[in-house]
């Protein structure tokens, strides 16, 4: 039932934006939290709570009321500029917000559980549907994803002073040094290893709706794994790593977009990756490195150049992962010349259209 509340608030936010009412992701999170605290569920109270929590400007109140009424009646249509329909006539469609609130409240009253996670609104919203201000709301979720990666333990055992499995060989050596007395057991535990990552990020026009959110993930990962290298490409290749040291995500992304030539322009993936192989592969990639390409694979160059560059990267790297936002569409097939040329040299081919898909990336980075 928790999903009903998250879905209802997210759907209402989308309807408001379509109707010209400015609502951001942080406002939706506040609204869902406020709804969880409302003891009564009558229509007028719901209206007032949502209007306040979503921070609707006074000049948009009439438009907001019209959209909310239509939404609650199951139509979620664009508002008319004349008098808005009111009343509580039962509709055939499901009342997502009120049903979600009632279910959440009942479940919480029975079980005493929190019932709502703000991340639920973030995880499944497609990046193209996210306004720019949602980026700030996503930072905390991205940081938690990055921290999970940085805390993953390897299979390698290393000496530890805390808990771990007994190390009999080291314990016996200690005993020999102390006259044969086994005073304490030496122990080993699985090491926490910093992942070695290289990101190659497509910033061409076809990736514009996704690039800023994907780069935000890369920035969060780099905070958890400082050795991470980041490159951007479109018609040329730019090493971004030296630009990532200062400022928050939004400021860093603005600085990057200004520094990368032809941002949101054309793309020559093969030529860009060939340049990476020539100038950076030997120094930045070894058998411990996971290389991640973020691109839709729509290349205007020679597919043979792309295939050869990908072959060289795969031969040197531990693993090659390709993130393609087009994979979110069940009708998509990797038949474009560039994607088809690269795919034989990719170890994992994954979608990258929302936060939930990026969560599935983490095991690939630590594999």
Sum up the structure in keywords:
three-stranded antiparallel beta sheet; 47% helix; single chain; 367 residues; Rossmann fold; six-stranded mixed beta sheet; alpha/beta; 3 domains
Secondary structure blueprint with pairings:
Elements: H1 2-18, H2 25-37, H3 43-53, H4 61-72, H5 96-111, H6 119-123, H7 134-150, E1 153-160, E2 165-166, H8 168-177, E3 187-192, E4 196-202, H9 208-224, E5 229-233, E6 237-239, H10 249-259, H11 269-279, H12 281-284, E7 289-294, H13 303-316, E8 319-323, H14 337-342, E9 348-350, H15 355-359, H16 362-365
Walk me through what this model shows.
The protein has 367 residues and is α/β, with parallel strands linked by helices. The protein folds into three domains: 2-123, no CATH class; 154-192, no CATH class; 196-365, Rossmann fold, CATH 3.40.50.410. The protein has 16 helices and nine strands. Strands 6-5-4-7-8-9 form a six-stranded mixed beta sheet. A three-stranded antiparallel beta sheet has the order 1-3-2. The longest helix has 17 residues, at 2-18.
Question: What is the CATH architecture term of the largest domain?
Answer: 3-Layer(aba) Sandwich
What composes the largest sheet?
Answer: 6 strands, mixed
Q: What is the ordering of alpha helices and beta strands?
A: HHHHHHHEEHEEHEEHHHEHEHEHH
Q: Please give the domain count.
A: 3
CATH fold-type name of the largest domain: Rossmann fold
Kindly name the structural category.
Answer: alpha/beta
Compute the CA-based radius of gyration.
26 Å
CATH superfamily descriptor of the largest domain:
von Willebrand factor, type A domain
Based on CA inertia axes, which overall geometry fits?
flat
**DSSP summary: helix tally:** 16
| Count of extended strands | 9
Helix share, percent:
40-55%
The whole-number mean of residue pLDDT values reads 75
């Amino acid at each position: 039932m928790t999903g009903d509340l998250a879905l209802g608030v997210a759907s209402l936010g989308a309807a408001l934006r379509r109707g010209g009412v400015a609502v951001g992701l942080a406002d939706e999170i506040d609204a869902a939290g406020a709804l969880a605290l409302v003891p009564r569920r009558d229509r007028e109270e719901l209206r007032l709570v949502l209007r306040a929590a979503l921070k609707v400007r006074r000049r948009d109140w009439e438009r907001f009321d019209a959209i909310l009424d239509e939404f609650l009646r199951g139509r979620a249509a664009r508002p008319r500029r004349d008098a808005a329909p009111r009343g509580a006539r039962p509709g055939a469609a499901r009342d997502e917000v009120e049903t979600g609130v009632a279910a959440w409240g009942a479940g919480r009253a029975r079980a005493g559980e929190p019932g709502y996670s703000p991340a639920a609104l973030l995880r499944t919203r497609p990046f193209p549907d996210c306004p720019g201000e949602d980026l700030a709301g996503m930072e905390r979720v991205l940081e938690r994803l990055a921290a999970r990666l940085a805390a993953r333990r390897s299979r390698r055992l290393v000496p530890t002073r805390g808990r771990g499995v007994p190390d009999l060989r080291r314990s016996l050596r200690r005993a020999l040094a102390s006259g044969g007395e086994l005073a304490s057991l030496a122990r080993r535990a699985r090491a926490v290893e910093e992942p070695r990552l290289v990101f190659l990020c497509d910033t061409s026009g076809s990736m514009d709706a996704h690039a800023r959110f994907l780069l935000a993930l890369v920035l969060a990962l780099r905070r958890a794994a400082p050795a991470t290298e980041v490159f951007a490409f479109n018609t040329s290749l730019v090493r971004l790593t030296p630009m990532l040291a200062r400022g928050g995500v939004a400021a860093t992304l603005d600085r990057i977009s200004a520094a990368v030539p032809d941002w949101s322009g054309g793309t020559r993936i093969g030529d860009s990756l060939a340049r990476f192989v020539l100038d950076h592969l030997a120094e930045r990639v070894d058998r411990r490195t996971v290389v991640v390409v973020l691109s839709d694979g729509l290349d205007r160059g020679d597919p043979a150049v792309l295939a050869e560059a990908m072959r060289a990267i795969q031969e040197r790297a531990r693993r090659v992962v390709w993130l393609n936002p087009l994979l979110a569409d069940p009708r998509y097939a990797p038949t474009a010349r560039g994607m088809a040329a690269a795919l034989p040299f990719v170890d994992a081919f994954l979608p990258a259209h929302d936060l939930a898909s990026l969560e599935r990336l983490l095991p690939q980075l630590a594999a």
